[in-house]
Design a protein that fits this description.
The chain is an alpha+beta fold. It is about 35% helix and about 40% strand. Strands 1-4-3-2 form a four-stranded antiparallel β-sheet.
């Protein structure tokens, strides 16, 4: 009897917050080595550029598709050594979370889960292309989210 009462929801109160990883997957993966095989003869160390983008799509029914896209470009002078793009995604179930707490979860917690998978995909793809692995440094998604919030406030 006590167990039955504990499982009943109180009207007007949200259910206990729940977070679940439903699926992790690579949405897109591409590699370009436009100057191969000549680029392998160059001894100039490449300059690495990294871009990161996070997108969120609601799937309805408290389900969200979060994607982080990592683009790594290596250049030696004017020549592109390689270009790798990885879109690492995940489907997340988020229930019972107040609206004001939902964006931080989607833009901080979910990317923190996805980033190690994207990092591994970049590293292994670059290695398979015949180059030394690119080891991406950890990303502070909380700071990125705060910067994004500040930029939106300044626009308003």
């Amino acid at each position: 009897m006590a167990q039955e009462q504990a499982n009943q929801e109180i009207p007007g109160q949200a259910a206990n917050p729940q977070f679940a990883i439903e699926k992790l997957y690579i949405k897109d993966l591409s590699l370009e080595v436009p100057n191969a095989p000549q680029i392998f003869l160059d001894r100039e160390p490449p300059q690495i550029g990294i871009e990161l983008q996070t997108t969120v799509n609601s799937l309805g029914d408290d389900m969200y598709d979060v994607t982080i896209k990592v683009t790594v470009t290596a250049k030696a002078g004017e020549k592109t050594v390689f270009l790798v793009e990885v879109a690492q995604a995940g489907v997340f179930g988020i229930v019972g979370v107040p609206e004001e707490q939902l964006q931080p979860i989607l833009m901080i917690a979910c990317p923190n889960i996805l980033f190690p998978y994207a990092r591994e995909a970049v590293s292994s793809t670059v290695t398979r292309a015949g180059f030394l692995p690119v080891l991406l440094n950890p990303v502070n998604f909380e700071a990125l989210f705060a910067q994004q919030q500040q930029a939106q406030q300044q626009v308003q």
